[in-house]
Each structure stands twice: as structure tokens, then as C-alpha cells.
């Protein structure tokens, strides 16, 4: 695992270079200005569309606008909102939240553009089961530009499909399963692999039914899980309401200046706040990845732009609403800069190894013996070489708790890669709460048991919904590459990966960030150029649609259906 983690770190340093992030941000700015701030249309006209006032059962497609949105949201509103926000704050500090907002706002225009393009080029040879996504955009679009470009378009489409499968396996599958297994084992002592097996069975039962079953499940699951999580978040924020203004001030100041170390937080620079805020927001709302267009392409409509406007709501709901709620829960409770659970009993001896430095096995403090769980991850804070992410010389050295034959707890330490011999920054031992477990602890700090029950239930729902929708994205890539004959093998592999992710191969937040960052990054590297090549067509179509809407040449065809018909999809049957 160390070799893979080192490889991913090297690749991520390239695909997440600052210049790449500025290109992504610039893409959102360009399409925002070009469309005349389409965010407004998403928040107004888009709401009317998802309410079913424009649904027409005679249009090509398989599901209505509401189900298409919830299917896409079920992939975005997931553990990225619980675990991803926690990772951003733990690694980049409070300032990362500001950059998540920026990505969320400009991501609305990106989503509109990429979904509109996919709707313009989607494959409707089977009107009841259409296929769409960037692979169809680039293959059909370049073919239309000239006969000699058809082969190039197909090659790029194949590369995109491969990156989609990589992202499906990492962020859309393993990240979800790992977080769910970790939090379930933490609170209930159920081995993580058992969680993986149960998740694999549940996901398999849904995805075997295709997009119509996925739409039916997500149409009911997404509203329930959102309401459940939002209510819990508002409760925690309400208890700490006096701290909220200070948290907003901290978010804005930390976005543009370094923040000092405090408790478990080792410090953060503006650059790393920007880096982790961008990465986690992009992972959470998927703007520019080209995933959501696959779900939206199944919508029943003969107006491509209409579905693009609906898609613009995703980053708003995902990042501006849900991610903000999670960040305020974590920041207002102070869990991100928590105090240590115990102190080292004596100064440890450092040992130099080929990879860096480690410490001798340490006896865990006896007074905390009831709190030491075999296999759990802890860390201490060391001072060593200059750390670019924290802006100081502080580093975390992780360790794993074990028990000897005398039933006394000990800590086996990992290696810190450093050219300098480290020294102990402070004697505190901190429990390593990674991803969703950090968020759950924040809830627990306000009402003991709230994180254990409500957040665990929410994590299960978020993970299930995300994996269900991402399985569809991978399926669409598989169909493009191999046709329908490859679908069954793909679904079996997808379910197997859920179990593999819970076998204990991932241990720290850095490893988790490397894994998901790689999956997100490779898709962006392929899809963003596609958007730039064909973006003009999306903008022309958008402005034509808005002109017809403004002049009254197009309006709702009927009154909105009942909520039951809308959620179930009966209004388009």
C-alpha cells in the first residue's frame, strides 16, 4: 500500500498542480459570464422544471427531470459532503471552505454547460434507454466537424471512459465503502468487511434493475437523507449559534492568510486551503468531471438546455447548502482542533530507517486503557523539516494501537519521511478521526450518541445512493467501450470493489485523499478540454432557449403533477 500511495502522491502533484486548478476555476468563470450568470436561471426556472411542469411522457428518455436530478444528486450529495469536507478542513484548514463555495458557485455554470452538451449529442437510438456523456459529445462532435476527426474523437472518448472507470472505482465506490465501514466499526464494533459485504448486496439488488430502478430508488432516498442530515446539522449549529459569526470570519480570513497550529490541527497555508478546498469541492459536486451528464441524459425531454438548467442546481444544493452545513458543524464544535486524549509517558527514541524516521513501540498510557481500541489509528505531532502544507515544521506521525500478551495496549508507529531527525512537538496523543468519523465526532460532542446513530445512518444512506448512481456512470462507460455484453461483468466487479475497500488497506486521511484525488483528477483532465472545444454550441443553445422563454414562446405545458407521481415517475409513464 505504501508503494501505491507514493505513486498516487506523485501523480496527484501533477494533475492537481495550482495551474490546473486555476484553469478549472477559469472555466467556471468564463461560462458564468458567457451565459449571463446562468446560476439565476437554475435557481428560478430550474425549480419549476423539476416540479414537473414541463414533463412530457412523449419526449425521448427514461425518467423525469426530478428523478434525473436526484439520480445525479445521489452521486454528488454523499460522503464527499460528510467525509470530504472533514478532509478539507483537517488538511487545509477553515479557509478551504471558502474555496469550496467558490467552486460551488462557478460549478453551477460548468454543470449547465457539460449537461447541455451531452443532451445535444446523446444517443437516442433507443428512445426509452438513451445514452449520453462526454464520450458521445467528443466522438459525435468531432465526427461532425470533419471526416478525418472521427477517429480522434473515438480515441478521446475511449480515454474518457477509462478515466470514468478509474473514478468510479475510487471516489464513487471505495471512498464510500471505506468511510461507511470505518464509522460502523468505530461505533458498533462490526468489522469493516462485514459492512462491505452488506453494502455490496444492497447495491447489487438496485443496480441490476438499470436506470429506471435507480431513478425510483434515488427519487425517494435523496429527499429523506437530505432532510435527516440537515435537521441534525441545524440542531448542532443552533446549540453553538454564538460561535457561528466567528466561524464565518475564520473561514474568510483563513482563505487568504496562514492559520496557526492548534490542538490536533498542525496549521495551514492559504495555498493549501485553496488546494484542498478546490479538490474536495470538485470531488463532492463533480463539476467538470463529466459524470452528471450521464444521469441527466436519461431524462425525458426534447429541450437539451432545459436539463442543463436543472443540472445547475446540483452544485448549489451539494456545496453551497450541504457542505456549508457540515463545515459549520465541524468548526463550531472545535473538533478539528481537538485536544489530545493522553500524553506520552516518556520521551520516545527515534530510529532512522531507509524511508525516514520512526519511533520505538510505545506503551499506551494506562489511565486511558479503556479508550484504546485494537487497530485504531492515532498520531502525535512532531517537529522536523519545513512542511509546505502547514507553513511550519510540524508533521503528524501516525501509529496503530495493539495489545500484547499481557493485555496492555501499545502503539506501533509508522514512518515519517523526513531528511531531518524529528523531535516531539508536544507529548499529546491524538485519535485520528478520518473523513466521516471526524464529522460524527463533531455531532457527538454536542449530543452524545447523535453521531453514533444519526450520522451513521446518514452515512449509510449517502454511501448507498452515491454508489448506486456511480455504478450507472461506470456502466455507461462500459457500454461505450464494450457494448451491453460487458455490463454484467462490470456490475460484478463494482460490487467486489466495495468489499475490497473495507479490508483495511486504507488507514489515513492522506491515503484517502490520494485515492479520491487521483480518480477525480484524471476525469477532469479529459473532460475540461471537451467543454472548451464544444462550449460555444452549449452557449448558443442556452441563449436561444432563454430568448424563447423570455418572449413567451415556450412555457409549462400543464399544472405540476402530484408529489407522489413526480417522485415515482408516473407523470411520464
Description of the molecule:
The chain is of the alpha+beta class. The protein has two domains: 14-337 and 441-572, Amino acid/polyamine transporter I (Up-down Bundle); 342-425, no CATH class. Helices cover 64% and strands 8% of the residues. The strands form two sheets. Strands 1, 4, 5, 6, 7, 8 and 9 form a seven-stranded antiparallel beta sheet that branches. A hairpin with a 4-residue loop joins strand 5 and strand 6. The mean pLDDT is 86.
Number of strands: 9
| CATH C-level of the largest domain | Mainly Alpha
Average pLDDT:
86
Domain count: the total is: 2
Q: Name the structural class.
A: alpha+beta
CATH fold label of the largest domain:
Amino acid/polyamine transporter I
Strand fraction: 5-15%
Separation of termini? 49 Å
Low-confidence stretches: none
Nearest-angstrom radius of gyration? Answer: 24 Å
Helical proportion, percent range: 55-70%
| CATH homologous superfamily grouping of the largest domain | Amino acid/polyamine transporter I
Amino acid at each position: 500500500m505504501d508503494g501505491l500511495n507514493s505513486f498516487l502522491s506523485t501523480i496527484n502533484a501533477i494533475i492537481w498542480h495550482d495551474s490546473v486548478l486555476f484553469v478549472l476555476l477559469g472555466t467556471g468563470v468564463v461560462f458564468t459570464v458567457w451565459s449571463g450568470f446562468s446560476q439565476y436561471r437554475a435557481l428560478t426556472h430550474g425549480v419549476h422544471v423539476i416540479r414537473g411542469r414541463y414533463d412530457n411522457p412523449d419526449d425521448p428518455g427514461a425518467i423525469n427531470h426530478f428523478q434525473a436530478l436526484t439520480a445525479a444528486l445521489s452521486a454528488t450529495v454523499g460522503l464527499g459532503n460528510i467525509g470530504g469536507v472533514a478532509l478539507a478542513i483537517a488538511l487545509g484548514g477553515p479557509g478551504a471552505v471558502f474555496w469550496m463555495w467558490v467552486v460551488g458557485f462557478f460549478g453551477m455554470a460548468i454543470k449547465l454547460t457539460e449537461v447541455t452538451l451531452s443532451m445535444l449529442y446523446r444517443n437516442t437510438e433507443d428512445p426509452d434507454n438513451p445514452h449520453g456523456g462526454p464520450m458521445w459529445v467528443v466522438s459525435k462532435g468531432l465526427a461532425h466537424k470533419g471526416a478525418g476527426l472521427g477517429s480522434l474523437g473515438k480515441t478521446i472518448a475511449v480515454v474518457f471512459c477509462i478515466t470514468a472507470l478509474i473514478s468510479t472505482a475510487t471516489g464513487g465506490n471505495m471512498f464510500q465503502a471505506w468511510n461507511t465501514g470505518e464509522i460502523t466499526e468505530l461505533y458498533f464494533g462490526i468489522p469493516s468487511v462485514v459492512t462491505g459485504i452488506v453494502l455490496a448486496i444492497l447495491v447489487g439488488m438496485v443496480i441490476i434493475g438499470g436506470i429506471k430502478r435507480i431513478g425510483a430508488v434515488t427519487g425517494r432516498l435523496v429527499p429523506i437523507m437530505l432532510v435527516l442530515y440537515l435537521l441534525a446539522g441545524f440542531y448542532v449549529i443552533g446549540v453553538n449559534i454564538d460561535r457561528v459569526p466567528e466561524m464565518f470570519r475564520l473561514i474568510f480570513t483563513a482563505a487568504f492568510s496562514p492559520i496557526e497550529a492548534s490542538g490536533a490541527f498542525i496549521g495551514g497555508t492559504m495555498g493549501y486551503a485553496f488546494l484542498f478546498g478546490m479538490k474536495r469541492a470538485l470531488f463532492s459536486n463533480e463539476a467538470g468531471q463529466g459524470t452528471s451528464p450521464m444521469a441527466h441524459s436519461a431524462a425525458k425531454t426534447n429541450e437539451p438546455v432545459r436539463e442543463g438548467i436543472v443540472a445547475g442546481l446540483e452544485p448549489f444544493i451539494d456545496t453551497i447548502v450541504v457542505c456549508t452545513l457540515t463545515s459549520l458543524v465541524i468548526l463550531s464544535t472545535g473538533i478539528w482542533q481537538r485536544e489530545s486524549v493522553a500524553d506520552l509517558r516518556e520521551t520516545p527514541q527515534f530510529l532512522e530507517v531507509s524511508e525516514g524516521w520512526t519511533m520505538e513501540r510505545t506503551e499506551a498510557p494506562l489511565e486511558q486503557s479503556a479508550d484504546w481500541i485494537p487497530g485504531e489509528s492515532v498520531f502525535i505531532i512532531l517537529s522536523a523539516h519545513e512542511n509546505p502544507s502547514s507553513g511550519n515544521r510540524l508533521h503528524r506521525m501516525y501509529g496503530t494501537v495493539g495489545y500484547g500478551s499481557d493485555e496492555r495496549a501499545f502503539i506501533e508507529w509508522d514512518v515519517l519521511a523526513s531528511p531531518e531527525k524529528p523531535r516531539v512537538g508536544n507529548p499529546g496523543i491524538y485519535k485520528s478521526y478520518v473523513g466521516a468519523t471526524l464529522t460524527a465526532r463533531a455531532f457527538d460532542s454536542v449530543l452524545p450518541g447523535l453521531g453514533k446513530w444519526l450520522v451513521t445512518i446518514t452515512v449509510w444512506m449517502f454511501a448507498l445512493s452515491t454508489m448506486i448512481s456511480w455504478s450507472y456512470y461506470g456502466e455507461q462507460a462500459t457500454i461505450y467501450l464494450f457494448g451491453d455484453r460487458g455490463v454484467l461483468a462490470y456490475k460484478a466487479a463494482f460490487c467486489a470493489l466495495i468489499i475490497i475497500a473495507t479490508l483495511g488497506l486504507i488507514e489515513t486521511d492522506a491515503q484517502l485523499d490520494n485515492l479520491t484525488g487521483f480518480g477525480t483528477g484524471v476525469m477532469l483532465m479529459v473532460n475540461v478540454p471537451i467543454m472548451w472545444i464544444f462550449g460555444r454550441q452549449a452557449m448558443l443553445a442556452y441563449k436561444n432557449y432563454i430568448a424563447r422563454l423570455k418572449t413567451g414562446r415556450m412555457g409549462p405545458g400543464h399544472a405540476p403533477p402530484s408529489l407522489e407521481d413526480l417522485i415515482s415517475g408516473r407523470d411520464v409513464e
